[in-house]
Specification:
The chain has about 500 residues and is of the alpha/beta class. It has a domain at about 30-85 and about 415-505: Urease, subunit C, domain 1, CATH 2.30.40.10. It has helices at about 1-25, 100-105, 110-125, 140-145, 190, 200-215, 240-250, 265-275, 285-295, 320-330, 335-340, 355-375, 380-390, 390-400, 485, 490-495, 500-505; strands at about 30-40, 45-55, 60-65, 75, 80-85, 85-90, 125-130, 155, 160, 195, 220, 260, 280, 300, 345, 420-425, 455-460, 465-470. Strands 1, 2, 3, 4, 5, 16, 17 and 18 form an 8-stranded mixed sheet that branches. The longest helix is centred in the N-terminal third of the chain and has 22 residues, at about 1-25. The radius of gyration is 22 Å and the shape is globular.
Length: about 500
């Protein structure tokens, strides 16, 4: 099945492959960013008037002094901000339509082809790495690595692993397998490899090992209930200690780790006992539990829109669960402050599932909404906290994949020796989060095709420059489209630039 999805993607892109090979495959071996203010991912300041030399996929020199770089492509920063490429530590690239559509009216090949548009949008929005926490993303990942399509560096978990009656059990009352009198499993989420239901130590070990065999960089389990599912209340604890510990040990055998969908003190502490490394969501826990997460060197990966009043407008959220969510928001509205106060490492998560445009809108809203959740009445510089969550902290989390990590070096920082995942933005994100895409509205945002983030001028991932819209000719238009557009992605032309013809783009 994954191989066939890869074939379909390749066929869909075959008309553009020749251009892609010449425009994307032949990366600039040496690039000098000159006169940039650097946000390094760690410090709450911009380092002014810096020069940064990139060779291949590595940052070689960061210096205030001029850098001799014969033969380098020069990008004139003119005082703009150079910063690490953004990292989304919890996304669902293959859940790119609404649940009901996936269950009733879609096949895995369509989801695979739609993922091409999703990963392109991630990259053009400045996200150079994405940790995917549930879905058969392996074919898309390979297509990116092979240069067939463009997108961020992917960290797939494969099918999330759920117990019967857990957050990954999407069978409905009328489906075979819902009751013990029937057998079978008719959930498309399971059939397509988005999730898998496994009970008992032997079954969870098999599910874990299948994901690792397919190329998972980490393992995702459902260790608690959820808000978007119908039959597992959000307060439930899922999987026994024996099952969780078995999964963690199997992941450790492959030098990687387990992340858990989870919310409550009881569930989190059970998972901590087994060595789970990241806690996806984790809203409804105590400060004492967050302190234990910090002591264990683990991570919290919350999507804070889950505590936003805007959630009521989500087409995904079952209406019957909204009163519960509203009550939880009243009780746990200061959870961001508790997380930071405990010293826990918090990574950025968009965690939207559903329509492609809604996912993009949600990601942009999440960037803004986190500045509200982590402000804590002015106790913290929330822009800085969010930027760390998007860069250096998320980079630390990705590094937990050990030898399963596809990155050639350190991510989320601008420093010598780090991987050259970089974006150049017009403005200071420490003062204005909108320059990296933060938006105060959610569903009322225009479609991304009509609302490009024009302050993101350069996107580089590793050894390849994918977007460059810095230079301005005399007529005020960009001197050339993003390099991504040279690869024949005509949708990208319409979104971002106003050129007369595709022939002009190709040149």
């Amino acid at each position: 099945m994954p191989r066939f999805i890869a074939l379909l993607i390749a066929l869909a892109m075959s008309a553009n492959h020749a251009l892609a090979a010449s425009a994307i495959g032949e990366a600039d071996s040496k690039v000098l960013f000159r006169n940039v203010n650097v946000f390094d991912g760690k410090k709450n300041t911009l380092h002014p008037k810096m020069n940064v030399l990139v060779e291949g996929d590595t940052i070689k020199v960061v210096s205030q002094a001029p850098i001799p770089a014969a033969g380098a492509t020069v990008v004139e920063g003119n005082g703009r901000t150079l910063m690490p490429g953004l990292i989304d530590a919890h996304a669902h690239i293959m859940i790119n339509a609404h649940y009901g559509e996936i269950e009733r009216n879609m096949d895995p090949y369509e989801l695979g082809i739609r993922s091409v548009a999703v990963v392109e949008q991630f990259l053009m929005d400045g996200f150079t790495s994405v940790r995917d926490m549930g879905g058969p993303l392996f074919a898309t990942m390979r297509a990116i690595e092979q240069g067939l399509i463009v997108g961020p560096r992917l960290y797939p978990s494969g099918a999330f692993i759920s117990q019967t009656s857990g957050h990954g059990d999407f069978r409905d009352r009328g489906d075979a397998g819902f009751n013990h009198e029937t057998v079978g499993d008719l959930s498309n989420f399971t059939r397509f490899g988005i999730g898998t239901v496994a009970d008992g130590v032997p079954e969870v070990l098999e599910a874990t090992r299948i994901n690792l065999r397919n190329g998972a960089t980490q393992i995702k389990i459902m260790a608690g209930g959820g808000g978007s599912s119908r039959f597992d209340p959000i307060d439930t604890t899922q999987y026994s200690k024996e099952e969780i510990c078995a999964i963690v040990e199997a992941a450790k055998d492959w030098d990687t780790y387990v992340g858990a969908h989870i919310f409550t003190d009881r569930a989190i502490n059970r998972a901590l006992d087994c060595g789970v490394k990241s806690f996806e969501h984790g809203f409804f826990a105590s400060k004492e539990t967050y302190e234990r997460i910090a002591e264990e060197g683990a991570f919290i990966v919350p999507q804070t829109w889950g505590l936003s009043p805007e959630l009521a407008n989500s087409p995904l959220m079952p209406p019957e669960k909204l009163p519960m969510i509203a009550k939880l928001r009243e009780v746990y509205g200061n959870v961001g402050c508790d997380m930071l106060g405990a010293g826990a490492k918090v990574a950025f998560a968009s965690d939207w599932v559903g329509d492609i445009d809604d996912a993009d809108r949600s990601r942009r809203f999440e960037i803004y909404w986190r500045t509200q959740m982590f402000d804590c009445d002015g106790k913290y510089d929330s822009n800085f906290e969010v930027l760390k969550q998007l860069t250096s902290i998320a980079g630390e989390l990705l590094a937990e994949s050990g030898r399963r990590n596809p990155a050639p070096g350190k991510l989320g920082v601008v420093e010598e020796g780090a991987t050259a995942d970089l974006i150049l933005v017009d403005g200071n994100p420490l003062k204005d989060i909108s320059v990296i895409g933060g938006r105060k509205t959610w569903y009322s945002q225009p479609k991304p095709a009509d609302n490009p983030i024009e302050t993101r001028l350069v996107v580089r991932k590793g050894g390849v420059l994918y977007k460059k819209t810095v230079e301005k000719p005399r007529d005020g238009r960009s001197s050339r489209p993003p390099i991504l557009c040279h690869a024949g992605h005509c949708r990208c032309y319409r979104q971002r630039l106003d050129y007369a013809s595709t022939e002009q783009h190709a040149r």
